[in-house]
Specification:
215 residues, alpha+beta, Beta-Lactamase, 2 domains, 6-stranded antiparallel sheet, two-stranded antiparallel sheet, 8 strands
Length: 215
């Protein structure tokens, strides 16, 4: 390193990339690269290369508005958030749900019209679902999404709704009277049916535990 100040040691392309992510998080639209270049102050060529890199790395993913945050960014965000919030509270509670019911267990939030899967806890059983951390699907198509959209009562159920042969159930997590997320369990339909009478009480206790941890 030379003898210059801190500014001499900064990596300008990285700062430019972070500026782009900040702009996207604030609602920036990349559908029109020329307009996006004008708004960000990043040249059109550089902007295109940054977007291609982020898409390849899974930081961004295609959307009708040009781009959205992808699974890799969601995993990073979930890892950064501390124990006092939703993801930290869920990470304490959900593994026991997966072990108790023998079903894959998820923490899901609503992002616009999509259900986004932030956590996945697996039981000691073969995985039957393609849903994983960072998955984003139309909320109306999945049980936790319907809960968060207010389309279901206490528990939402799904039989081969999104994936053939896969059953699911979900319950909402409330904080100060509002839904802040949902717990979802999924597995082979036969496995879900085998513990169907236990799913609602187990999920209810888990949701209450997470809510209590949120304060």
């Amino acid at each position: 390193m030379g003898g210059g100040g801190v500014s001499d040691q900064l990596v300008t392309p990285v700062l430019r990339a972070l500026d782009l992510l900040d702009w996207l998080a604030a609602g920036g639209n990349t559908d029109n690269l020329s307009e996006a270049s004008r708004e960000t102050g990043i040249s059109r060529a550089t902007l295109g290369r940054l977007l291609d890199t982020f898409h390849t790395a899974g930081v961004l993913a295609p959307s009708p508005a040009g781009t959205r945050f992808g699974g890799r960014m969601l995993r990073l965000a979930a890892a950064v958030i501390g124990d006092g919030d939703l993801t930290g509270a869920a990470a304490v509670t959900l593994p026991s749900v997966a072990a108790d019911l023998g079903l894959s267990t998820y923490l899901v939030i609503l992002d616009g019209e999509d259900a986004v899967y932030l956590q996945q806890h697996l039981p000691d059983a073969p995985l039957v679902s393609n849903i994983g951390v960072g998955s984003r699907v139309p909320a109306v198509q999945v049980a936790p999404g319907r809960i968060l959209l207010g389309m279901a009562e206490e528990v939402a159920w799904s039989r081969s709704g999104l994936e053939s042969g896969v059953g699911a159930a979900a319950i909402g997590i409330r904080h100060r009277g509002e839904f802040v997320g949902a717990i979802s369990v999924a597995g082979p339909q036969a496995g879900v049916d085998a513990v169907a009478d236990r799913i609602e009480p187990v999920l209810l206790v888990a949701a209450q535990d997470i809510s209590a941890r949120l304060g």
